[in-house]
Amino acid sequence: MALKSWVTAALLAATSLSGFAAPLAAKETLVVDFVAEPASLDPHGQWDVASYTVYRNIFDNMLTRDETGAIQPQIATSWTYLSDTEVEFKIRDDVTFHDGVKLTAKDVAFSVNRMISPEYASPQNGQFNQIEKAEARDDTTVVLTTKGPYPVLMAQLTKLSIVPEHVAGKVSKEEFNLNPVGSGPYKFAKWTRGVEVLVTRNDEYWGEKGQFPQASFRSVPDGATRIANIQAGVTDIAANFDNDLADQLEASGEGKVLPVLGERLAFFALNPSVEPLDDLRIRQAIAHAIDKEGIVEGILGGYDAVLNQMTTPVSFGHVEGITAPDYDVEKARALVAEVGEKAKTPFKLLTTPTYDPRVVQAIQQMLAEVGLTAEIESGDMANWMKLMQSDRQTTPGTAFGRWSCGCQDADGVLYSLLNSKSAWASAENAELDALLEEARVTIDQDKRLELYKRVHEINAEQLYMIPLYQASVIYGAAKNIDFKPLPNENLFLNRVRITE
């Protein structure tokens, strides 16, 4: 079947804009449209893009990245290695939380210990579980102790938000989620479920202040509505554009398209604990059946880039020369035939509307063409995350997913998705586990690359995960918005400007 037959013929017409209040003047309110509302505004309580995009503006992090991707100070101004496992950080002494209480090293230590606490059970724990403890030595000094040498520490700390101990330490997670208090450039104002999160500028912010007195993050699931909102002047920035929406906005002349190849990758997860995926030949057949180039060029419009490994070129750990099973329908059919009756066993294909349904439907059709039956199961992102972290015996046989650690280091992807200790992983491979554990404690960067090369090779052989493509982050924006998308998908409100 020709690839184009898998692609939706046309977009739905833009739906009515009724239900949204008339926007304030653009210089008063920056309006940002996303597909889904946040799952949580507690920065340690969730790890989805919608949540991160909002709370990253309410809270400061230990460290940050500039527009080139380089790690820069934020709450921590400098750091010194006391040993291979102890790092001393100096903390800014001019930062106050939104309630007026001064931020100190005690809040930093509390935030780190809260993140790694088994009792708190953060979904981000796998990114920080090499940290053993954090101790405040005085008001401006905190020491982090790691379980061993940890080369990814600084990259991970670009994602660790600082919360006030006097608030988060006294209320429940649910209460803090409903009324988050940070020290970032914008303050939480109001959360109207299913509609918007409203934040207001922190005029006492220690760093670069935002241009806009307030910003509205809105939940707009329909892509046609997001583009119509830009064209109508209702929205300033809209996220989660696919190529069709991008081309439509470009052609209209009523906005601009802002793409960037990011660290996020799209993958097809295979659970070898579920029939018929427990047979390597079936996993090989699936890999040969998926036309990655066809997906990128025929469905995604060439904005994205084909991947043969589970790390993107903008992240440390991407290795040259890794090969993956080639697209070969006949080889896939032969493998299915070789397996025989067992290959006819249907299996689930888990997804969520947040992900591009065209790609998921195309993969389902590609698998059908080689004799495999994948039954699409789609629910909201919370359901996707819950099922992906369930017991290996109950996790669906296959799943389409997109992953970004925000750290631009292979550890944030490979350890989470391939190490058997991770709740996200379906793989159980002792050699893989050992390599990933060693890479986490190896300071020598060349040695780390050698370890990750072997990880990529094992995954290409065993096919626990099929890397599909490096995702392009595509935003639409009003013509007068000055905004540079970042590979790690941070959207910093205080870096957005309006031009005349």
TrEMBL record:
Residues 71-421 form the Solute-binding protein family domain. One of its GO terms (biological process) is peptide transport. It is found in: Periplasm. One of its GO terms (cellular component) is outer membrane-bounded periplasmic space. Keywords: Signal. One of its GO terms (molecular function) is peptide transmembrane transporter activity. InterPro entries: Peptide/Ni-bd, SBP_5, SBP_5_dom. Residues 1-21 form the signal peptide. Belongs to the bacterial solute-binding protein 5 family. This is Peptide ABC transporter. It comes from Falsigemmobacter intermedius.
